[in-house]
Amino acid sequence: MNPLTLEDIRSKFDAFIEQAKSDPTSGEDILKEAYNQIEDALKGEITPELMHLADDIYTYMGKLGLEKRISLHRRYLKIASDNTERFWSHWQLVDTLAVLQRNRETVEEQIRLYHWTCEQLSDAYVLEALYDTTQAKCWKEESRIDEWFQLYEEASERLENPEVNRYTRCLFLQAGAEVSYANDRLDEALLEIEKLERLNSTLGLEHYFQFWLTAITTRLLVYSKREDWERFNQVFIKASTFLEEEIEKRDTGHPVDIGNLTWAAHDIGCCLLWSKKYNEARRFLQIAVDFGNNNAWSHFFLAVSIWASEKDREKTLYHLKTAQDYMLNPLNRDMYYQTFLETPEFSDIKDDKEFLKVLGQK
Fold first, then answer.
1. Within a domain: residue 93?
2. Do 89 and 82 form a contact (C-beta atoms < 8 A)?
3. Total domains, the chain
4. In this structure, are residues 211 and 196 in contact, taking their beta carbons and an 8 Å threshold?
5. Please, which residues have CB within 8 angstroms of residue 298's CB and are 6 or more apart in sequence?
6. For residue 309, what pLDDT is reported?
7. Fewest CB atoms within 10 A around its CB: which of 65, 75, 123, 158?
C-alpha cells in the first residue's frame, strides 16, 4: 500500500468539514481518521504544509488538540523556514495558551512575539501581534492590563503608516475598543469606535459590514454598562431595523447575505443577553439558529436566555446539548462545561445531573 500523502490527509479533513456543515453534530469518525493520519505524518520531517494542516486538524480536537497544538508550535518555532512562518506559529501558540487560560504563559509569549515582530517584520504584523481580545483577557487575569494598553498605545503609532492596509488597521481598533470596554475604560472604547467608524465610513468597502456590526455591538455594551438606555435604544432600533429589513427581503425573494444576517443576529443577541434583556436576546439568538448559523455559541447563549426568561428545561437542555455536540467548533470543544459553571444565569442548576450529562460530565 502506498503511504498517504498530505493531499490524502487534507482530502479526509475536507470531507469532515463538509460532513459537519451538512450535519454539525456528525463527522467525528472522519475527523479521528484525519487526526491519526496527521499524527503518523508528524513523525517525519515537518514542512510548512504539514504544519498548517496539523494545526487545522488539532483546532477541532478539543482540549487534546489544544495541548498538542502547543507542543507542536514550540517545536516548529525552532525550525520555521522564514519570519512570516515564525510569526504565524508564534501567534497561534499565544492564542492557544490564551484559550486554555494559561495566563502567565500567554502574557510572556505575547511580549516575546511583540518585541520580536517590532524588530523583524513590518508595521502590519506589529498591529496583528496585539489584536486578539482572548489574549488580552490573560493580561487582565495577571493584573497586567495596564501593560497591555501601553503596548497598544505604542503599536498604534503604526496606524499612520499608509502601507498598513485598512483591514488590519480596523481589526486593531476593534480590539482596542473591545478590550477597553472589557476593562471599564468606556470613554476609550467609544473613542476607538469613532476612529473605526471614520476608517469604515463608506458603504461597499470590503469588510464594511464586519466593522459596522462591531460599532453597533460595542455601543450597545457601553451604553448598557452606563445604563444610558436612551442611547442604547437608539442603537438597538438601528440594529433591529436592519435585521427586520433583511428578513423581509429574504421572505419576498430578494437576495440577502444570510451569513451577515445570522452574524448580526448572534452578536446583537449576545449584547442583549449580557445586558440582561433576556426576552429580546432569545428572539435574536433564535433568528441566528433558525437561519442555519453554524456557530455553536448561538445555541449555548440561546439556552442561557431561555433559562433566564422562562425556565424551560426541555428547550434549555436541547440547546446546551446541541452546542456540546457541534463538531464545527474550532478551539472551543470541551469548553462548555466550564462556561456553564461560570454563567450566573445557570447558578441554580450547576449541580443538576441532567444538565451535567448533556455537557459531557459523568
1. no
2. no
3. 4
4. yes
5. 262, 266, 269, 285, 288, 289
6. 97
7. 75
Domain membership flag for residue 139: yes
In a domain, 86, yes or no: no
Predicted local confidence at residue 1, as pLDDT:
41
Q: Are residues 321 and 253 in the same domain?
A: no
Chain centroid to CA 94: how far?
14
Cβ neighbours for 167, distance < 8 A, ≥ 6 positions apart:
206, 207
The three three-digit cell numbers of residue 23, written as one number = 450535519
The residues near 265 (Cβ < 8 Å, ≥ 6 apart) are 243, 284, 285, 287, 288, 291, 293
How sure is the predictor about 170, in pLDDT bands with cuts at 50, 70 and 90? very high
Q: What is the reported pTM?
A: 0.92
For residue 206, what pLDDT is reported? 84
**Same-domain pairing of 308 and 288:** no
**Does some domain include residue 204?**
no
Residue bearing cell 442583549: 272
Domain range spanning residue 39?
Answer: 1-81
For residues 72 and 113, state if they share a domain: no
pLDDT at position 138 is 98
What is the C-alpha separation between 226 and 295, in angstroms, rounded?
Answer: 29
Shared domain for 278 and 326, answered yes or no, is no
